[in-house]
Structures are given as structure tokens and as C-alpha cells.
Amino acid sequence: MSAEQISNEDRPTAAAIREARAQNPKMRERDLARILGVSEAELVASFVGHGTRRIEPRFDDLFPGLKKVGEVMALTRNESAVHEKIGPFEKFVQGKRAALMLGEQIDLRMFPASWVHGFAVEKMDGKDVRRSLQFFDAHGDAVQKIHARPETDMAAWDQLVDSLVLEDQSPDVLPTVTPAEPFSRKTPSDGVETTLRERWQAMKDPHQFHGLLKDLDLDRISAFERVGEDWAWPLDTGAVTALLRLSASEGIPLMCFVGNRGCIQIHTGAVETVMEKGPWINVMDPTFHLHLRTDQIDSVWMVRKPADVGHVTSVEAFDSDGQQIIQFFGVRGEGNAERGDWRSLAENLPRQGRAVALEAGE
Predict the structure, then answer these.
(1) Sheet of 71-77, strand order
(2) CA angle at residue 315 from 296 to 201, to 5 degrees?
(3) Cα angle: 169, vertex 42, 163; to 5 degrees
(4) Cα separation of 356 and 237, whole Å?
């Protein structure tokens, strides 16, 4: 049962949430919140006064402060993918609608309006204390989590938290969250194909694609379905696993994007260690971890978009509602052509209805 299906009278209290956490210490917070019928933000907030403090997600102070703490782990996720990067926060670029974090390891696109609730969390893990900063949107869904590591400068961490702490630290008060509108596909207008192809071919930068979708009132899959197979075609749902394995075995660097309403996190570079466990395909490299639920992939598309030099190639996976789960590009610099090895890999992934070769050379 989802949180929006439970009336306020039926919602568990903060004390009841803490008791459920104590009875299920190993369960992931996202899963426990779903079972309890609350948002993850409410679950975290139930521990205010019990190792958790409310903080304000004030970008102008948060990200310059994070630059001083050194190495951390930044985590961005959606329903089907978890993207983790280990490294320092480096160059912050502020913006009212969108802000950037640029760095060799941690590379983010952030949308400040969705960073509504913030918490500084301390948890006991045996004899150790685990510390994190956790941020949630108005619906109580996590947009970003930042975890301290052994190499983190904890004096700078504590100074940052103290600068962000809100005055109101009343215990047993849960935040107000609003139900999110479910994602739904759009109905394309009649005859949109001609305009779509004209606008698509006229692009000079892949970033213009978002404006194209907005102007034509299309979702991504609808655009892919209608633009023609010279620009986009459907792949087998196992293509993402094949992509990761081939990229690792052949040493082809890539860009991997995972996002939600408030944040998009990007890995740029090679992947090395790819493992399967149950429905999950995992990348477990020194500074990059990816956990992807392959059973929640409903469709995958191979997409070409015009760029400043030729075109760029992406592979995009979606869930059954048509919501994007994950996106891959090849690594390239502005003004340079796309790498041929990436393009060859992407264009030769198994198309819809064909068997998937999971190992290089098969």
C-alpha cells in the first residue's frame, strides 16, 4: 500500500516508525518506508532527536562546505537504479533552476526547487558511527544522499552541518509530503512525425532535444517511436547488461546517467567489475558503483542525435510507465567526433526480439 493510500489517522507515529526500524535493522529504508505506508523522508524524520537533525538544503552554503570535507560518497537513485560516486565535491556552479557540480569523480545536475527536506543523520553500525546528509523532495522521495567515509574531514563535516541546522529540532514531528503525480505517456498529435523529423535533423546540440520534446508535447519514447529508424530503434531489454559487460571487457569508456526529480548523477570513464546478483546488474569499481534492476527494464532504445560534429549515440532504458531509468553515452569532448568503438558497440547491441550476447566475442 502506498503512502497516499493511507489516511493521516492511519499513518504510523514517529515512535511506531522507530520501533519498526528496530525490529527490521537490516531492511533498506526505502523498502521499510513502503511497507509502513510512509515516505522515506518521514522515516528519516522520525529519528530527529535520536541521532538525526533537520538541516536546510541551502545550496550556497552546502556545496562550498562539501568542498572542504574531502572524499565522500554521493548517491543518486530512482526506483530502478542506484548510482554511487566516491570522491570530493569540486566546482559548484549555482543556478536558480539548475545548478552544477563539476568534478573528475562527482558530476551532478541539480534542480534546487526539488531539494525540500534535509537531514544530517548519525547511525550506529556496531561500534562505528555512520554519518550522512540526506535530501528529499516535496513528495518525500530521496533526491541525493552524501555519505561520510574514513577519509572525510569530520571537523569540516561537523562545521558544515552546524551551519545548516534548522532551529526547530522538535522530535516526533513528521514532515508534510504530497503525493507525486504518476508518470504517464503523452498522446502525440496527428501528423507530428514530419515536424519531429525536421526539428530532429536541425539540432546542432543534443541538449536541444529537451526543447524539441517540450515544443511538440512529446515524451521520449513517443519521439523515438516516430522519428524513424535512421535516428532511433528499439533494443532487446537485455541490451543494457550486454552494454556494461562489453564496455568492461573491451575497455570502452562511457558516460552513465541516473536521475530523479531533483538530481542527475553522471559517471564518466571505464567500467571494470560487472556482476549479476538476482535481478540486479552491478558495477563495483573503486570510485563507481551502479546497481540496476534489470527486471524493471521494460524497453531500451538506441538513439542518434545531431551534434556539433556528426551525431552522438545514446542507449536509454525505461520502465513500464515510460519513465527513464538510465542513459548511456560515449565519452567525447566538445568539438570532437564520437568515439568509433563506442558507436560500434551501441549500434551492434541486440535489437528487439533478437538473442543477447552477454560476453564479448559471443
Answers:
(1) 52-55, 117-125, 128-136, 142-148, 71-77, 81-88, 288-293, 280-284, 274-277
(2) 135
(3) 35
(4) 9
- pLDDT single digits (tens) 108-122: 999 999 999 999 999
Q: What is the pLDDT of residues 251-269, one digit of tens each?
A: 999 999 999 999 999 999 9
Instruction: Name the one residue in this structure whose C-alpha cell is 529540532.
Output: 169
What CATH number was assigned to the domain covering residues 192-347?
A: 3.40.1570.10
User: Are the CB atoms for 257 and 244 separated by under 8 Å?
Assistant: no
Residue 20 CA: distances (Å) to CA of 9, 35, 43, 96, 254: 18, 10, 10, 39, 41
Partnered with residue 93 across adjacent β-strands are 100
Rounded to an integer, what distance in angstroms lies between the CA atom of residue 102 and that of residue 14? 38
> What number is the average pLDDT over the span 132-142?
98
- What is the band of 11 on the pLDDT scale with cuts at 50, 70, 90? confident
pTM of the entire predicted model: 0.92
What are the strands of the beta sheet with 107-110, ordered from one edge?
Answer: 91-93, 99-102, 107-110, 263-269, 254-259, 324-330, 311-318, 299-306, 232-235
Residue type, 130: R
Q: Give the CATH architecture of domain 3-90+115-164.
A: 3-Layer(aba) Sandwich (3.40)
Rounded distance between C-alpha atoms, residue 144 and residue 115, angstroms? 9
